[in-house]
Amino acid sequence: MQMIDVEQLPGASTPPPVSVGGREISEAEIAAEMQYHPADSAGSAQLKAARALVVRELLHQRAQMLGLAAQDSEAEAADEAIAELLEAELAVPEPAKDDCRRFYEAHPERFSQPVQLDVRHILLAAPPDDAEARDAQYHLGVKLLAELGEHPERMTELAQRHSDCPSRDDGGSLGRLMPGQTVAELDRALKHLPVGLHDRPLASRYGWHLVVVDHREESRQLPYEEVAEQVRLSLHEQATRRGLRHYLLALESDIGVQGVALDDDSGASLMR
């Protein structure tokens, strides 16, 4: 649920204050919290920050009710009290073995070894806003690819002579790569390249890449026995999120929250 834009309310001049059980959370507190909640807009960050503070205040007040926290607890003591509270009141059952197996079979992409590539390259550097340099380096790349097509054994020599990447000292070798380990533009292209010399320069923000894929190991689902603990933890985290959501909604109803409504992900900051 989004906060209502006060400009849409007839006669409204200030947004409604955010409060929990009668204790107001100030705009200054929300502003200070926003740095921990990056978002695509200031309004979204403000809303996330407000919800995070509401969640902590709900839990702190519940901990006070049970005698786990003093009224004026320091931040560290308050966090310890909240942890003790959740351990006492948030009962999350362990996932059953059959549920773990079904989850593993339903989500093979989550428990797979990614594509792995052994790659060598030559980087011909050219800034993205320098059209003349990029054109010149592209034509040099085409020339070098023709040379490599005829004489692949010259890769080390040509990398040492022409590459602007530190890998030139290793003959252009980038080692074994997995997704996300190189610049995004090259990373996307590598996913689809077969073994061998690619027949045209590949563009990135750094210039042009002449690429040789020496080995390609396709993605494969890992055996269940290797990821059983990871599967169990994934299901346990899901159950914890569900349990925490219901627990927070119950506290919201019992204690009372004004100015902002909790959403399905309001307790996420407690699980980081």
Structural class: alpha+beta
How many domains, in number, for the residues?
2
Main sheet? 5 strands, antiparallel
Shape: elongated
Number of strands: 10
The percent range for strand residues is: 15-25%
Keywords: Isomerase, Rotamase
Domain PpiC: 114-215
EC number: 5.2.1.8
Enzyme class: isomerase
Offer a concise description of the structure.
With 272 residues, the protein is α+β, with helices and mostly antiparallel strands.
Structural features, described:
With 272 residues, this protein is an alpha+beta fold. The chain has two domains: 133 residues, no CATH class; 104 residues, Chitinase A, domain 3 (Roll). 45% of the residues lie in helices and 16% in strands. The chain has eight helices and ten strands. Strands 4, 5, 6, 7 and 8 form a five-stranded antiparallel sheet that branches. The protein has a three-stranded antiparallel sheet with strand order 2-1-10. Helix 1 packs across helix 2. The longest helix has 32 residues. The two termini are 22 Å apart.
